[in-house]
Amino acid sequence: MSETFPEGLQDFLHALNEDMRTAADWGAPADYIPELAAVDPAQFAISVAMADGRTISAGQHDKPFSIQSVSKVFTLAAALGRIGDTLWGRVGREPSGTAFNSIALLEQEKGRPRNPFINAGAIVTTDALLDKRAPREALAELLQFIRYAAEDEEIYIDRHVAASEEATGHRNAALAHYLYSFGNMLNEPDMTLGTYMHQCAIAMTTEQLARSGRMLAGLEGAPRLISADRARRINALMMTCGHYDGSGDFAFRVGLPGKSGVGGGILMIAPGKASIAVWSPGLNYYGNSKVGTEAAHRLANFTGWSVFGA
Amino acid sequence: MSETFPEGLQDFLHALNEDMRTAADWGAPADYIPELAAVDPAQFAISVAMADGRTISAGQHDKPFSIQSVSKVFTLAAALGRIGDTLWGRVGREPSGTAFNSIALLEQEKGRPRNPFINAGAIVTTDALLDKRAPREALAELLQFIRYAAEDEEIYIDRHVAASEEATGHRNAALAHYLYSFGNMLNEPDMTLGTYMHQCAIAMTTEQLARSGRMLAGLEGAPRLISADRARRINALMMTCGHYDGSGDFAFRVGLPGKSGVGGGILMIAPGKASIAVWSPGLNYYGNSKVGTEAAHRLANFTGWSVFGA
Amino acid sequence: MSETFPEGLQDFLHALNEDMRTAADWGAPADYIPELAAVDPAQFAISVAMADGRTISAGQHDKPFSIQSVSKVFTLAAALGRIGDTLWGRVGREPSGTAFNSIALLEQEKGRPRNPFINAGAIVTTDALLDKRAPREALAELLQFIRYAAEDEEIYIDRHVAASEEATGHRNAALAHYLYSFGNMLNEPDMTLGTYMHQCAIAMTTEQLARSGRMLAGLEGAPRLISADRARRINALMMTCGHYDGSGDFAFRVGLPGKSGVGGGILMIAPGKASIAVWSPGLNYYGNSKVGTEAAHRLANFTGWSVFGA
Amino acid sequence: MSETFPEGLQDFLHALNEDMRTAADWGAPADYIPELAAVDPAQFAISVAMADGRTISAGQHDKPFSIQSVSKVFTLAAALGRIGDTLWGRVGREPSGTAFNSIALLEQEKGRPRNPFINAGAIVTTDALLDKRAPREALAELLQFIRYAAEDEEIYIDRHVAASEEATGHRNAALAHYLYSFGNMLNEPDMTLGTYMHQCAIAMTTEQLARSGRMLAGLEGAPRLISADRARRINALMMTCGHYDGSGDFAFRVGLPGKSGVGGGILMIAPGKASIAVWSPGLNYYGNSKVGTEAAHRLANFTGWSVFGA
Fold first, then answer.
1. Which residues are involved in binding substrate (chains A, B, C, D) (predicted)?
2. Which pLDDT score, from 0 to 100, does residue B167 have?
């Protein structure tokens, strides 16, 4: 790492932003959610919440984007807070080896999703958080949880995106009904699905997202929302399962626990050092941000923050 | 961690050994390799090679055991040394979501194994290391690599175990012929299989194994056999794929890159801090050491070495 | 066959009924549809509609039962009548090699069910028959089709059974939403599902069912609802796919095209010779009538009607 | 059928031959067996062994071709003759829903192949026939069985084809070793594989093949090699499993029990009426003869021999 770090880091982020903006191939935005498909892929932002309490950024770091599956990290943390480790009786902790929306594995595993970060597992986690309440109530709790984590009251749910998903969410509906048929849903599928779709539609800037991850990085001054133990375990899940069937490659190339969303955001945790958010809406083959993954790779190289290095 | 660490660590290891010896359920040794099935499960050893150059141990740390799949780490390192990153054209880097000896996924992926730590991937890696040489030659190179890493010339291949496997290795033979049919084998299946079975039959003590992992932990004084970059990436693979379909759970509970073998050994890496080997021959549901996994869990808690914690 | 056939056949049916009534193990009724689970399994009926125009029976042949998946034969015939062979663009004609309600294969085949007799394929067929109409209209057409085929106006839909299924049909809802997500549904899932569940709830006696199959057997005097060509092809599908993952065994043991339902009914076709209906509500491992299958086996042996014999 | 049948049938076969010779697309010969890949695809022959004892033909009916998987019918008949119905403990009777050489299903079914006509099942059947004897002995018995069935001593094993397969048979070797690992092989894999490859290399003309099928059709004058009961059951298996993952479509379009081979041959049985062999070396998507399937379809239409028609 540059000797003048963290000063050098700010320079690095600016240079990285410049570099990324010349990307030959931004990838394509998710095409199955109309509101997202319309987003210009040639956008980029990165923010780093540091151990010293500062958050530094580059690019469009104050532009809210749809966090989509990144929300699964917060839902998991909130659900664990609500019902504790009994959640693990309903969802596993293993990589799936399949696409994020696969239903085949669910049949084989008799309705217990492999982990909370594939869609089926996130639906179960949302169902646990919902816990027979009105969706409005559970969503308010989740939003409050994230706002508190980021210390920012402006984080909101984008109703247009939520509505956009409802029209196309038949794959998720299939998962929900399937889980229900195995007795792994406590609420009516439509209740859980509505909650799930709204949580995916939470909009955040990279700055807000990076700050909300400080609790997972165990940074001093971060709001105390979860125990160190639980943070460590959520980080472990992000490492092994956070990028769907590209998780192994992300660990190999970047070496940080991370969770991606089809909105093009990625949240990464460097335990004890930083919480990082990157965003660029175009996706790669696995449904993870193409330019964002490249930026993560370079940042990890520059900082030496990989958890796998000496 | 105890303030008196690493002095406190020695005490902890002794206490851990005492505790583990009272295990109510040791698990059962692998039953499909006759030489291993005959091993007394009620055995335990742990060794920690530390940053200060010392290696401390408890239990039967000078008793050689069959490292079995732990050898896949060394074969991978040696094969990468021989042919470089072209290896990744032949084998992936993703968790498999299936048992260690599954062949179904291989059909779906058209003969490219998901990662180098499931049997199919390890056979491909061995095939790459063999590289049209005589098995004897490749095995000599591999053994030399490990001896050099451990700085111990006494590490050897247990011919009885190798012979024991040859009689029962039809599942591996199926994988090898299958890989061959997809053009993902350079050598005749029998050549690669013979090499593979002998490498699995390497015998080491926990002390030797812990010392051989120092290169991956990037400890000062460790023999320079691989670059820091490559070590980091091998560690990443150990984290996401090192315990077969129990990898996610190991990451969740222990938080260290690790590779297990059906001989009951586990090698774990705490980057910059230590290389750890634990051994107990009885296995759990996933084919990983039952008591060894528990010991790893406790050691991680005591030391705070999880890579996911602040 | 007895020389005095068909006179001998009536005697055989009576003897068969006597024999079946002493069954040591009737199997268990389908447990996932409350109205069916409550049915007494110790019931049996058989009817044979013959080439000479007569229908002979034994057992409880005038007791209506829920035909469930046997309805898929009629829906297929009616849908082919409505939209013709374009249906085959949406559903295949191959045995599935999996359970009747599997969703895994559907993922692999990208939303095109393997055949019209597994649930996914029947839902698509129903969707084709519904064809943007009100469910009531499509159901009226289907019921009229069956009544005409059986020349019996008393055939009806059992609303209690339909309601019973709606409460438990989440597995089918999962299939419907999944098909929709692949673009293989023309109507809203709820519309198609409602139609599907009502058609499964059609109640018939074995006598009515046997008579409704005369069109498939090509018996003289049968109402002309489908061409000989189409009848032949539906029979072929019944042979290869009519008993889910027990189709091969039914062909092997009985040798007649047949379609079973979880209500315990089986419709069998002996081309040019007879249409046969058997009913007994207890099911075997594959979800086909246990005693009914045994009776079919004995009838085939007695009559020599297997299509595979000289 | 033409009123002047069977006289009209001879004319029809000649016309069919003329028509087929103008095929726009013959398909491509199997490419993975070098000796077969070199065969000119633009060839055609058809032979019909009739109830009156005569065999009539058109095209290249006296040219031997490699029967390949058609041999599985004879091996099954011979193995059942040797060990009886205990064979069904080792192999199932259900369509597989997968490709002929799939290994994935075998893992799921724990080493019991779905039916005797996919490669895994045929290897088990061959293993049963081999029954600890020398391959030479079992092959002699099988060849004698076929020669006797066809009443033709000139049927032979093409050693060039057998050798050609041995060089490329790694997929089959994988299946054999895999079966062995599950305890479903009595002989050393190499012994069974050698036998299997030689039986696939049997060469026959369509005339010989049609005549050898008379026992299955139950034609008068056919050599009495198997009981009527067994013939009926083998026919059932040919119907549901004889064309791999194209079996349902063949039943739908042709309506006769049939077994195809990648050499381009198809044996079809019209119970009580005829045994038919057709040959054309180019294959369709499922690995069945392209022009041969079309010819079978037309023959079935002309004769009305479909077992599913009135």
1. 69, 119, 165, 172, 196, 244, 262
2. 65
**Mean pLDDT on C189-218:** 97
Was C101 annotated as part of a binding site?
no
* Across B12-40, average pLDDT: 91
Looking only at the bridges linking them, the beta strands covering B45-50 and C45-50 are: unpaired
- The alpha carbon of residue C169 and the mean position of all alpha carbons in its chain are separated, in whole angstroms, by 19
What value does the mean pLDDT take over residues A187-212?
Answer: 97
| Region at B120 (left for phi over 0; alpha for psi -120 to 50; beta for the rest) | alpha
- Which pTM does this prediction carry? 0.92
DSSP chain D: --TTTTHHHHHHHHHHHHHHTT-S---B--SSSHHHHTS-S---EEEEEETTS-EEEEESTTS-EE-GGGHHHHHHHHHHHHHGGGGGGTS--S--SS-TT--HHHHHTTT--S-TTSHHHHHHHHHHHHTTS-HHHHHHHHHHHHHHHHT-TT-EE-HHHHHHHHTTTHHHHHHHHHHHHTT--SS-HHHHHHHHHHHHTEEE-HHHHHHHTHHHHT-TT----S-HHHHHHHHHHHHHHTTGGGHHHHHHHT-S-EEE-TTSEEEEEETTTEEEEEE---B-TTSSBHHHHHHHHHHHHHHT--TT--
User: Residue D286's Cα: distance from chain center in Å?
Assistant: 15
Distance from C228 to chain A by nearest Cα, in Å?
Answer: 39
Using a CB-CB distance cutoff of 8 angstroms, which residues of chain C are in contact with residue A108?
104
d(CA C224, CA A43): 65
**What gap in Å lies between CA B50 and CA B58, rounded to an integer?**
14
For residue range D211-264, what is the model confidence (pLDDT) as tens digits? Answer: 999 999 999 999 999 999 999 999 999 999 999 889 999 999 999 999 999 999
Query: Around Cβ D302, how many Cβ atoms within 10 Å?
Result: 17
Give the per-residue pLDDT at B302: 96
Angle between helices C71-83 and C228-241 (to 10 degrees): 140
Residue B261 · residue B279 · CB < 8 Å: no
Nearest to A308 among B96, B105, B236 (CB): B236
Of D106, D171, D177, the CB nearest to B181: D171
The ipTM of this complex is 0.94
Express each pLDDT in D128-170 by its tens digit.
Answer: 999 999 999 999 999 999 999 999 999 999 999 998 876 678 9
Please give the single-letter amino acid code of residue C161. Answer: V
Q: Which two tokens stand for residue A193?
A: 């699905």
Nearest to D174 among B104, B108, B174 (CB): B174
- Minimal CA separation from D173 to chain B, in Å: 6
Cβ-count burial of C134 within 10 angstroms (0-12 exposed, 13-18 middle, 19+ buried)? exposed
How many CA atoms lie within 13 Å of C74's alpha carbon, on the beta-carbon side? 33
Contacts of A257 in chain B (CB under 8 A): 308
Residue C138: count other Cβ atoms within 10 Å of its Cβ. 27
Among D262, D288, D272, CA closest to D235? D272
| For residue A31, pLDDT beyond 90 | no
Residue B265: name the closest of B193, B197, B310, B201 by CA.
B201
3-state secondary structure C44-105: CEEEEEECCCCEEEEECCCCCEECHHHHHHHHHHHHHHHHHHHHHHCCCCCCCCCCCCCCHH
Has residue A1 got a pLDDT over 50?
no
Cβ of A241 within 8 Å of Cβ of B233? The answer is: no
The pLDDT tens digits of the residues spanning D163-200 come to 887 667 899 999 999 999 999 999 999 999 999 999 99
**Domains of chain C by range and CATH?**
7-67+203-303 (3.40.710.10), 69-202 (3.40.710.10)
Query: Are the C-beta atoms of D145 and D78 separated by less than 8 Å?
Result: yes
Sorted by sequence, the CB contacts under 8 Å of residue B188 that are 6+ apart come out as none
